[in-house]
What we know:
Blueprint: E1 6-8, E2 11-14, H1 16-22, H2 27-35, E3 45-48, E4 51-55, H3 56-64
Antiparallel strand pairs: 1-2, 2-4, 3-4
Helix pairs in contact: 1-2
Amino acid sequence: MPDIRITVDGRPALTTAMAARRHGRTDAAMRDLLSARRLNLDPVEMLDPRTPLYDVEALDAAIDAMPGRGVGGGRPRRAES
């Protein structure tokens, strides 16, 4: 599988599917988190009319700060390969 890196104004960005894989969630679960505004995070840009792009650092911080995941907030990030 190719390694695709997306940047917006020089900063790394993720699609919803990429964010789901990064955080060990299903695409549907990540869409639910983002669409329900549970993370209070807006896309930094739209790849196309149906594909929002999210800032990597902002998304990581928002998920890490989610309540209910033990001490320190959200799930630990999966190690990047």
